[in-house]
Amino acid sequence: MLALGIEGSANKIGVGIVRDDGTILANPRKTYITPPGTGFLPRETAVHHREHVIPLIKKALEEANIKPDQISCVCYTKGPGMGGPLSVGATVCRTLSQLWNVPVVGVNHCVAHIEMGRCVTGAQNPTILYVSGGNTQVIAYSMKKYRIFGETIDIAVGNMLDRFARILNLSNDPSPGYNIEQLAKRGKQFIELPYTVKGMDVSFSGLLSFIEDVAKTKLASGECTPEDLCFSLQETVFAMLVEITERAMAHCGSTEVLIVGGVGCNERLQEMMRQMTSERGGTVCHMDDRYCIDNGAMIAYTGLIQFKHGYITPLEETTVTQRFRTDEVDVIWRD
Question: How many CA atoms lie within 13 A of 263 on its CB side?
Answer without folding.
Answer: 23
